[in-house]
Amino acid sequence: MGTMSGNELSSWEKKQDGEIGIPTGGSGGGGAKEERILVSVRLRPLNEKEIRNGDLSDWDCTNDTTIVFRNNLQERFLFPPIAYTFDRVFSCDSSTRSVYEESAKEIALSAVNGINSSIFAYGQTSSGKTYTMSGITEYSIADIYDYIQKHDERSFVLKFSAMEIYNEAVRDLLSLDPTPLRLLDDPERGTIVEKLTEETPRDWNHLKQLLSVCEAQRQIGETSLNESSSRSHQILRLTIESSPRHFLGKNSSSTIYATVLNFFDQNFVDLAGSERASQAMSAGTRLKEGCHINRSLLTLGTVIRKLSKGRNGHVPYRDSKLTRILQNSLGTNARTAIICTVSPARSYIEQSRNTLLFASCAKQVVTSAHVNVVMSDKALVKHLQRELTRLEDELRLADSTSSTVSVTETLLKAKDFQIKKMEKEINELTQQRDLAQSRLQNSLQSVGDHYDSRHWEIHESSMSNMIYDGNSMSETSSICYHDRSFNAAKSLSIMTSLDYANDNNVSDLLRNLEAKHHRSSQASHCLLPMNTTDFVVRDEKEDAIVEKSLEEFEDLCKEVHCIEMDESSMSVSMNIGDATPRPPPPSPPILEDDIDDYDVQRKNVPQVQSVRYLSNHLTEGTVCTLEEQLQNAKKMDVKRNLNELFPLPLDSGRSSGLGRSRSCERYIVQSPSPSPWSVDDQECDNTPPGKLLSDFPGRPKGLLRRGPHTIDYDGEGEHATFSGEASQTCESRFSTKRVDESDMSEEEISSSHDCVEERNAGVDVQTNKEKDVVRDVHVGLNLGESLFPSPARWPVEFGKQQREIILLWKECNVSLIHRTYFFHLFKGDDPTDSIYLEVELRRLVFLNRTFNNGDAFKAPVEDGCTVTPASSIRALRRERVMLSRKMSKIFSSEEREAIYHQWGIALDSKKRRMQLASSLWTGTEDMVHIRESATIIAKLIGLFQQGGQALKEMFGLSFTPQRGGGGRRRSFGWRHL
Ligand SMILES: Nc1ncnc2c1ncn2[C@@H]1O[C@H](COP(=O)(O)OP(=O)(O)OP(=O)(O)O)[C@@H](O)[C@H]1O
């Protein structure tokens, strides 16, 4: 038979879902349960002999758990009163039934719950051990039978065996053979008694008969203390096997269950009496018996004492056969109850105290009982096979799960890797996108508010069109600006074939392209800081748009107004279809000033390089730098160029003495607001509003021309002479020559020429300066109009224009330094200065109009930033701060105090320098205020240290011949001040 532990049974029970049906009450139920030995004390009454001998009962049970030695006062000296407490104490009048019920029944019925149990009776001889255990055994077996009868769902098999240990020999009480039995050590069941008779009682009566046999077989002898003293330790063992009854014979599996047995031993141990030989007056055989008895009991006491201190250390079970046989019932796999019987007689007080001390030690012993399961070998094999199959299934499941998990983990890792890779790509693309957006935004911002970025598309050029290998970029590249606001009608395609050698040249290319675009749209002199990366390659689907733009561009090319520049400036002129690589021109020198903390960014201002632009695109008014304007003016028709660059409002009736371009006409038509210009209408034969000059019937006829875009020049050294009146009369006719010359007949041209001749004849005054200017201008033909006002009219004209300019300076928040420069440069003593005033006025008018209309689309761009009223105010504020700082450096304290006094600034006030700087150029009518403001600022910036001509050159406005081969001029645009 195989055995299973309680833990194994627990697992078994779970698997079989309680089919075994093993009772789990009490300490059963599978898991081991630790508990202390149940210790009770039973006090018997005084027997007749004791009464006869006059013994007194000094023991008293004060309650159900306490027994007290109660002696008289004299004896208390020798035996002090002591109270003993146990699980239960029974007085002398307690019945054996009550003792069983309250101290042994629970333990006895544990057997039917599959747990070993043992009930001991310990006490001195004649204390009532046999008396008590006989009753306990009968009650227990009776209850066991009763339980079996009430639980017919299980099959119970009772086996009964009985033995005694007499003089350390084990004897079978159910056998007549007195041969001592050997003790064997069984690995499953522990110590077993070899060949011990094991009877299966048929019923309760049969069992009682067996008990009678045992009683009859037990060694009994007469001692002085007990006439029928038990001289051996008797062990009655009832083994109970149980199995679930309903599985029997149903199927093969049930057979297995049927062979599974739950067994337990119920030991009823009636120990031999412990007594002293002197007391028992033993001798001979009884003395020898007593020695063995006492040795066994001594070992039992030792084992109990050891167990009471825990299971640590060696427990001498094997020192006696009693303890060896009862090993499983003492502190291990059993529930144990010990009933200590005590004689109340005073004469046995010492034995009684020893019994109670033993009981006290036994009370400390902890047992650990669990359900015992035994299987047949066949059942055990079947069970093991099933368990093996289950474990194999679990293993396969674990492997499958592990494999699945492994595959899943691999997939997850792959996914994670893929996700990380995609995230990385997304991040890179996001960065590229942000970078591109940033550059695009910068580019659009650079384009400024002229062109709302929302209205623009940068059509990409295909890679086949633009190839840049890091060293050179060649082939034709197409960059198309598509302005939706113009409904694509004003798309400008700039097509260029260039081969630039390096990145810088690529940037220059793009600057040129941008400059073309910018000048064509707004003629702003400031180039856009375009970057090559700002241009994206055009997609093929945009080809149609580009092609359309190119077609438009070719049409527009027919109307290109080619402005010929001097040789130095022509180095970068871009001709349509010209594939000849051109290096970018050198940047012009920039004037170094001594304004330390002023925000001057002239060094970064790119040079306008485009020399060919579309006159038809000059439709919204054109603003150009003075520098560019005057460079152009040196080699071309000054009037026409100025009119193209600075269109004059027509409705103002202003006659500037300069011609008007076709673009100017459009500007005029679109300008409904009155102009600050005030010119006598009778002096100018203007083109009517809303009419193109070509349609104006009063245009001159017969204007001689020598080329498609150049005006005839009458030869070297020949001065163009003219009168102001004639020029005023003929200016419009003259200005329309270029635009409409293709439509003009030879007669008309001749008429125009006649007009020039008539004007030349009427020249009254020709100053040498005028001659120099005209000669220097190199107009290229016989000028047929008056370029400058007559000296007689000039002072009046100058006064008007000066006041208008001063007013507009304030309106437009123009730089104070620029005002100062201009004020000191142009004082009205030179009629040729009219062109400068004309340029300044037109620029200011345009700027003022842009500011007033809030038209950011047309606002000029300065250093990549759109010039707005707010930005100009901020710049002006910075300039005043700069000037205030320079005051302490330029002026002495006395000079400053004098200036403060003159300007009404209290000397004890705070921020006096800033007060003064804030007051400069604030008036517009008071010429004294203007003059003093200009004087102070001129001193602050060292203006007077430069000669007048130097100032003009500094301003880039000199028309005088270049001395010594024409050195480079310095540009000093007002925007950069
Ligand atoms: N509780 C009791 N009530 C009445 N009589 C008792 C009680 N206990 C014991 N006796 C009587 O005391 C006598 C001795 O009892 P018993 O033989 O059971 O003692 P014992 O402890 O077994 O002695 P031994 O160790 O010598 O066998 C018996 O005659 C018995 O009837």
TrEMBL record:
Swiss-Prot/TrEMBL GO biological process terms: microtubule-based movement
Ranges where the record places region Disordered: 1-32, 735-755
Molecular function as annotated in GO: ATP binding; microtubule binding; microtubule motor activity
Coiled coil: 374-446
GO cellular component: microtubule
Record has Coiled coil as a keyword: yes
Record domain Kinesin motor: where: 36-365
SUPFAM superfamilies linked to this entry: P-loop containing nucleoside triphosphate hydrolases
UniProt-annotated binding residues for ATP: G123, Q124, T125, S126, S127, G128, K129, T130
Name of the protein: Kinesin-related protein
